[in-house]
Fold this sequence. Notes:
globular, three-stranded antiparallel sheet, binds adenosine-5'-triphosphate, alpha/beta, six-stranded mixed sheet, binds magnesium ion
Amino acid sequence: MSIVLREIRFSYGEKKILDRISLTVREKEHIGILGGSGSGKSTLLKILAGLYPVKEGYCEVAGEHAPEGIRKRVAVVMQTPGLFPLSIRENITCGHSMTEEKVWEAVRAAQLEEWVRGLTDGLDSLVGERGGNISGGQAQRIAIARAIAKDAPVVLLDEPTSALDGETADALLRAMERLTEGKTVIHVTHREETIQNYDRILVLKGGKLFEKES
Ligand SMILES: Nc1ncnc2c1ncn2[C@@H]1O[C@H](COP(=O)(O)OP(=O)(O)OP(=O)(O)O)[C@@H](O)[C@H]1O
Ligand SMILES: [Mg+2]
């Protein structure tokens, strides 16, 4: 099994968010998660990403239990991409040693090659607060390139295609296909069409996970 959750409970202070959630996901399975705003979808993803310690219940991701172990085995793309005020290259490698070829492979898979080749400083162009203007779609695809370069067995996506225009959304969808190919995927979204070919669609409601009725 790639992911095993058993009886996970989670609260922010007094506010109960997840109420005994159990879920098992096979290797390379693609799971979509729907649910109303505030239902706890991002919270669940953060637990799966090893960003919150689990105090009640059992959480295993890619064979790891400890949050620091889990964090090495998952690649995450969040709704707002959170780039570092550094170069495109550094945003992709995150300080890990990586061959030039591997960085370009990720750039290509994330549909960024043409854009990067057209920049005066190429991969060394600054982005984030210090960089020039880049579009939301480009920022999102840099975050996807980072996740592709990490080559982790588990990929977690939190609304990565929300609020983008048509052309950017197409490039983004192609980039996401490359990122999710052959991986275990948990994809939170409001847009059902982006997960319609997934193996299972689940709904988070009232702190519980349900199979979506089709
Ligand atoms: N760090 C936090 N501290 C306290 N409450 C929080 C925190 N993060 C989220 N919450 C609350 O917990 C609930 C679940 O939040 P979460 O972000 O997981 O929902 P969501 O399903 O991802 O919503 P959305 O669809 O709007 O992204 C919300 O009521 C939110 O206000
Ligand atoms: Mg959310």
